[in-house]
Amino acid sequence: MEIPALSSFSSGVNLDALPASEIETRLRDFFSGRIANPKPDDLIQSVNQLEQQFGDYKEFQFAKAAMLVQACDFAGARGILLDLVKQLPSDSRVLHRLAIADLNMGAAHEAQDVYLSALAAAPKSENLRREFAGLLRVMEAKKLYAGVDRKKHGLAAVCAIKNEGEDLLEWLHFHRLVGIDHFYLYDNGSTDDTRAVIESFPWPEMITYHFVEGEFGQMRAFSHAIDSYRNCAEWCAFIDADEYLFPTKAGNIKDVLAEVGPAPAVAVHWLNFGSNGHDARPAGLCVESFTRRAPDDFPDHFIMKSIVRPDTIVSYLHPHQSLVLGCYVQEDGTPVFPIGGRCTAPKRDKLVINHYYTKSRQQLLKKRERGRPLADGDPEKIRAMEFFTLRDRNDIEDATIQRFVPELKKLVQG
């Protein structure tokens, strides 16, 4: 019987005629894309099918360790990687993967030693340097503030905004209603009434506002928040102004977070809402006007955002995910290893993010014209119109968020 992974790996080449070094190279090329793929099925299948013939090769062992990391078997991965380090003591790639396993196990001192070895092997690596520096900050803060509670807020939200004045007041009121205690807002040069909207919020002490001009961007905003406020809140949610984070059954987000124990970070998944057929911006609230969304298996629904204990953040990888000291969990406390801000089995029974990406057609066009938080001239700044229209899905009526509407209306109108 033909083995699919073997057939794909060999590509018609007589493997028996190749030297071991060439097979190692081919294994590395074969597995690299599978390791980076947020859907692990192909990696798992390939490892299982190739183990009998190639199990002793170092690149196969590296792929097997990556598979175990994705399955949150960090101890199993660590054992394999320690054996590989003995054979490849100067391979920064193996050392980095070992450091990631140590971090997910919460083993800070072990990760510190591995990072030092990795930097000795690859002294010019900015990623290694940044992660190592972040780990040292986390470790020093734990020593410095041992036994001292400096956290003023139970749950804060960090958000980068630009010309979001239309729905920002609703967004602020909504998130206060569901348990946000403080907002760290980074306004990247808004030219609409964003600032006036913020100043109209009845609880100004709940907002820390930064107005930044130029090519600041979301990543710099979030990184600044981590560096500046990592000891100010127990939890921080890193979300956008078109994202509404809420508990599906509980009255408060913090009630759900209390159930995950000492976990450093929680993955919360999107539901992508469409235009409901609106051409112009409707008169009502955003959450009551856009009630139809994409089906459950829509590709974007595997995307997650993070609620993180900020004092555990080693490095902010991108707007969806951090590298933390410890392991991410799902809403029910199940360990998970996100890749590229995606999880293979999203859970939305307790927490969810309604993502109002398109809103009405006119709002969609304004959003596209505004562009992404990237430098002027970046070819990715203005997305193709097809990117938006593919996300204008209105397949399912979803009223889960509507229980908050009566109180939210009073707050916004009052």
General shape: globular
Could you give a short account of the major beta sheet?
9 strands, mixed
Strand content: 15-25%
Low-confidence spans: pLDDT under 50, at least 5 residues? none
Structural class: alpha/beta
> Helix content range of the residues, please?
40-55%
Count of runs of 4 or more consecutive helical residues? 16
- Computed over alpha carbons, the radius of gyration is 23 Å
Series of secondary-structure elements, N-terminal to C-terminal: HHHHHHHHEHEHEHEEHEHEEEEEEHHEH
What value does the average pLDDT take?
Answer: 92
Our measurement of the CA-to-CA distance between the termini, rounded to an integer number of angstroms, reads: 71 Å
Could you tell me the number of beta strands?
13
What would your notes on this structure say?
The protein is built from 16 helices and 13 strands. It has 414 residues and is an alpha/beta fold. Strands 1, 2, 3, 4, 5, 6, 8, 11 and 12 form a nine-stranded mixed β-sheet that branches. Strands 7-13 form a two-stranded antiparallel sheet. The longest helix is centred in the N-terminal third of the chain and has 19 residues, at 126-144.
In brief, what are we looking at here?
The protein contains 16 helices and 13 strands. It has 414 residues and is of the alpha/beta class. Helix 2 runs parallel beside helix 4, helix 3 packs antiparallel against helix 4 and helix 7 runs antiparallel to helix 8.
Relevant terms:
alpha/beta
